[in-house]
């Protein structure tokens, strides 16, 4: 199978079929990431379209020596971040090192994993989605979230701990 | 817990395998979103300028002396094409007629392009259009290796240098251009480069010698307007 990176080089050369192949491979992952990140289907759809348009418009900014998926997710992350700025959504300032308090009512019923992820603080959720769910390494997560790799690792670890607390 | 993906995500079990994790990571798109997205990208492709995959097609930063010299020279140059003569069966009369004018940088001087003159490899060509009204101008290069759409830009009526993103376009000649053709093709709407390339006679595919007349004849037959110039380069 042709690698993502090779397909992206073909996209840079104007190959529409290569773009469509990348879209077919990754569209559900990108949408899954954006939907879980925004928790808003309409906004996720808007950002999804914006992301893939930027993949096309920004194709010449892709470096041949970089992995495609982190590059793709960085576009999605930036789109979501810019959207947050545009709409002046709440900026989550929870310290990744602070104690996570799970509201009492959440102990009263068994949450699904999906609902538990949804209830993570934004800073932990973003790192968890990129690192644990979508498989980016700590350095790639750190680069996208403008934090240190150690901080990325800590956030993912704390997200896991928070999920365990909610689900067990 | 007995869901390997959930256990992994909670840090209670090893990685469940890419396939299982991807299945969790992915969410089906709402109906129509994929189609709308690809359509938006396709529209974007059609709108943007096209550039051939060649290092010889470049932009000149506006304000460079050579570009300024070109402007001065070309403005006074006679047309190399006749706007009024472009008619053919199937021609869409609403498509704006166009004339291609060129200048060449040769022996350190920029001057009007001369039909029949053999230029040196390394000489550079500059392009200017004269279009009867607003439309899309496509710069096409045809040689024995095939047809390429070099640029696509929407312009207003009148005469001006061919520019992309504010920068003048140029072509650096090499021996492969020994006998090649440059053409301007106009449309009312942006036309995908691949569609235009398929529309125009491809000398590489037909085994014919490239010539301005046959190239423009194929454009005209498709209802497009065209003006073309042959370029000779010393081998």
Could you explain the architecture of this structure?
The complex is a heterodimer of chains A (168) and B (235). Chain A is an all-alpha fold. Chain A has 2 domains: 4-86, Rna Polymerase Sigma Factor, Chain: A (Orthogonal Bundle); 104-167, Arc Repressor Mutant, subunit A, CATH 1.10.10.10. Helices cover 67% and strands 0% of the residues of chain A. Chain A is globular and about 50 Å long. Chain B is α+β, with helices and mostly antiparallel strands and 235 residues long. Chain B has one domain (51-233). Chain B contains 7 helices and 12 strands. In chain B, the strands form 2 sheets. In chain B, strands 1, 2, 3, 5, 8, 9 and 10 form a 7-stranded antiparallel β-sheet that branches. In chain B, strands 4-12-11-6-7 form a 5-stranded mixed β-sheet. In chain B, a hairpin with a 2-residue loop joins strand 2 (98-106) and strand 3. Chain B is elongated, with a radius of gyration of 24 Å. The N and C termini of chain B lie far apart (76 Å). Residues 50-55 and 59-91 of chain B have low confidence and may be disordered. Chains A and B meet through helix 2, helix 3, helix 6 and helix 8 of A and helix 1, helix 2 and helix 3 of B.
Give descriptors for this structure.
heterodimer; A: 168 residues; mainly alpha; Rna Polymerase Sigma Factor, Chain: A; 2 domains; globular; B: 235 residues; five-stranded mixed β-sheet; 7 helices
